[in-house]
Design goal:
Elements: H1 3-13, H2 18-31, H3 47-59, E1 66-69, H4 77-92, E2 97-100, H5 104-110, E3 114-118, E4 121-126, H6 128-132, E5 137-142, E6 157-163, E7 166-171, H7 177-186, E8 192-195, H8 200-215
Parallel strand pairs: 1-2
Antiparallel strand pairs: 3-4, 5-7, 5-8, 6-7
Helix pairs in contact: 1-2
């Protein structure tokens, strides 16, 4: 069976009439940019196009929920944009969409709520904003003319990474970030100074480290 036939068959298998199933199959193939491949076999497609067909197969019969495993695997950037847009549209239309993914940048960008799973256990869940609660404050300073070693002795601010002239600081609880700004201005022209949110990848690592530390056995004091 070629693509259009398979999608039509799946639609009919879920109770759609032949004409409606055929129209839905054609519509989804067009939406995923595969209209010109409608008469090809699935095995002749690239991995990315096979992923698109799999999602079309899940959507062709108007499901009540989508549960997807790594839907972005093997996709090129254009296909990722199309897939993300379709999933977002379905969620906005009221269809529950649940998917697992290691593409944390995409998860952060398109998901309403996130669950971090470690060895079959949910160790953290919530919106990205909720998962960031409690994370250390960070400030990025771009000081192109700063001397080597600048920023290492500022009270309440610890440099944690450097990218060229940009230095990322972690601000201690209760510390005043204006002290950091004043120190930067005293060292030369400041090109950039702003708050930086931790990425979902950083949150993920921190959550797993915290979970591992809680699970680690403690030695009895002698």
């Amino acid at each position: 069976m070629h693509l259009a036939e398979q999608l039509t068959y799946l639609g009919e298998l879920h109770g759609m009439g032949p004409a409606r199933a055929t129209a839905a199959a054609r519509a989804w193939l067009k939406r995923f940019g595969l209209a010109d491949r409608a008469h090809d076999d699935v095995q002749s497609l690239s991995m990315g196009n096979q992923q698109r067909v799999q999602l079309a197969a899940a959507l062709v019969f108007n499901p009540i929920m989508l549960v997807l495993d790594e839907p972005f695997a093997g996709l090129d950037p254009v296909a990722v944009d199309v897939m993300s847009e379709v999933l977002r549209e379905q969620a906005d239309a009221g269809l529950p969409v649940i998917f697992s993914s290691h593409e944390l940048e995409l998860v952060e960008r398109i998901c309403d709520r996130i669950a971090i799973v470690e060895r079959g256990r949910v160790v953290a869940q919530g919106t990205v904003a909720e998962l960031r609660t409690g994370a250390a404050e960070r400030r990025l300073v771009d000081l192109p003319n700063a001397a080597t070693g600048w920023g290492e002795d500022i009270r309440g601010a610890t440099p944690i990474s450097r990218d060229g002239s940009k230095l990322l600081f972690e601000i201690e609880p209760g510390a005043d970030d204006q002290a950091l700004l004043r120190a930067a201005l005293a060292s030369g022209p400041v090109r950039e100074f702003h708050h930086v949110e931790p990425s979902l990848g950083e949150i993920f690592r921190a959550v797993l480290q915290e979970d591992a530390s809680r699970a680690a056995p403690r030695e009895d004091a002698s």
